Amino acid sequence: MSSATPSSEQPVAAPTAIACDIFCAVIDNFGDIGVCWRLARQLASEHGWQVRVFVDDLHAFQKLCPSLALDRARQAVDGIVIEHWHEPAHAGDTLEVADVVIEAFACELPPIYVAAMARREPAPVWFNLEYLSAEDWVADFHLRPSPHPRYPLTKTFFFPGLGPGTGGVLKERYLDTARMAFEASQPARAAWWLKTTGRAPPHAAATVVSLFAYENPAVDSLLEQWRDSAEPVVLLVPEGRISGAVARFFGLPSLAAGSHAERGGLSVHALAFTEQPGYDTLLWASDINFVRGEDSFVRAQWAAKPFVWHIYPQADDAHLPKLDAALAHYARTLPSDARDALARFWHAWNGAGRPDWAEFQRHRATLKQRAAEWAGELAQVGDLAGNLALFAKTQLK
Ligand code: TRH
To answer: Which among 282, 304, 284, 289 has a CA at the least distance from the CA of 346?
Structure first.
């Protein structure tokens, strides 16, 4: 799959570069390392920072970054040092404390490292990078300081968000240009289809859907509706947690990358999980994107296409207010019938009701226009890496 990363994305860290350590504990799936790796690459390539990533799960990481070696305690990829954080107390073979320390998603830093942070003069700028939420309270808590109970250190809470006053979400400087170049180039799209599916691009009348989701009971109903749809649907499914259900629908033992199947108006291509920049191209090549978790949810917004979000499920349905908070931003200016249709579809995809594809399609043109407008509104909040770098610099002075 083609990569959206320009070849110019090379580390530019100077000897005087700001040093930054990012600590990432992978809870599950790919979002924790997905966000950290994207942030690391941006701080290195766009801000010239010297970045190290401490990560405890190289297997999950390697899926997004295939050049990573699984057996190395320390390695460099794109000029970023990657330390296999193999036990909680470990902080690399030599204890060096960076200028900026990012603790991702409240993972606990090695105590030995925190003690060294306290000894460092000047003290490093310490962030806890939180999970993304579109809820209103986020702006009130963004950049709140939290003094350490024992050491002379202050941790700053950095909250990503979709609205003003939050930390924003990650967006690379090259992203829009790369997307528009892909969309404008028929040969680039044809080459992508050939490389990714082994076929030419589908007929313009077909709706191309990318499907990245957790296991989802609503998928069977949707697959039936796509099969029976008057207009053809071409489904692109990266190998993952929803693949088993799609395979069963087609009567296949599995949906391994490279397989194709057809039923009625629905055809499916199973795709290999790509390196991270390649996932953007999949979103750009599709008309509608089903995304999940955190990072793919953000990428779908930058793809400026209608999308459906499978939010990461939490205990006691704590995720449902977050789903509605995101809808409140994204659907804000939609006419009420399109807004209701979108909300119904998103709710159905997250466990409440049956998704109605025909209704979604009826509003497709309006949703597409809103998707483009929303990408512009979201960009006003500023890119997370840029926002974080700016704040850190004010603290380092
Ligand atoms: O994988 P996710 O579900 O991740 C998470 C985690 O579950 C995490 O614990 C949770 O807290 C968080 O969601 C909210 O979904 P996400 O965030 O979209 O991450 C997927 C990453 O995988 C993203 O960076 C895009 C990338 N990706 C590829 O690089 N290639 C691919 O082919 C695909 C499908 C995705």
So the answer is: 289
Catalytic-role residue among 21, 32, 135, 295: 32
Mean pLDDT of 94-99: 88
According to the model, what pLDDT value does residue 82 have?
Answer: 97
In angstroms, what is the span from residue 291 Cα to ligand 1's centroid? 9
Tell whether the model's pLDDT for residue 7 goes beyond 50: no
Answer yes or no: do 81 and 53 share one domain. yes
Residue 84 lies in a domain: yes
pLDDT in tens, 53-65: 999 999 999 999 9
As for ligand 1, residues whose beta carbon falls within 6 Å of it are 27-32, 34, 64, 131, 212, 238, 273-274, 276, 279, 292-296, 312
Longest dimension (CA), the chain: 68
- State yes or no: pLDDT of 6 exceeds 60: no
Q: Which residues, including other chains, have CB under 8 Å from residue 305's CB and lie 6 or more apart? A: 283, 284, 286, 287, 288, 289, 368, 371
User: Residue 29 belongs to what domain range?
Assistant: 8-169+381-396
Hey, whose CA ends up nearest to atom 35 of ligand 1?
279
Q: Which residue has 């009420």 as its token pair?
A: 336
* Best CA proximity match to 210, nearest among 238, 232, 236, 243: 236
Buried b (16+ CB within 10 A) or exposed e, 74-107: eeebbebbbbbbeeeebbbeeeebbbbbbbbbeb
What ligand 1 atom has the least distance to the C-alpha of 312? 14
Tell me the angle at which helices 295-303 and 31-47 cross, rounded to the nearest 10 degrees.
Answer: 60
pLDDT band with cut points at 50, 70 and 90 for residue 89? confident
Task: Record the tokens describing residue 58, joined without a space.
Answer: 């190289």
Q: Verify whether residue 21 is a known catalytic residue.
A: no
Asked about 32 being catalytic, the answer comes back as: yes
Q: Which among 397, 385, 358 is positioned nearest to 127, based on CA atoms?
A: 385
pLDDT of residue 3: 39
368 has a pLDDT exceeding 60: yes
Q: Whose CA is nearest to atom 4 of ligand 1?
A: 31
Answer yes or no: do 83 and 210 share one domain.
no
- 259 and 336 in a single domain? The answer is yes
Does the residue 322 lie in any domain? yes
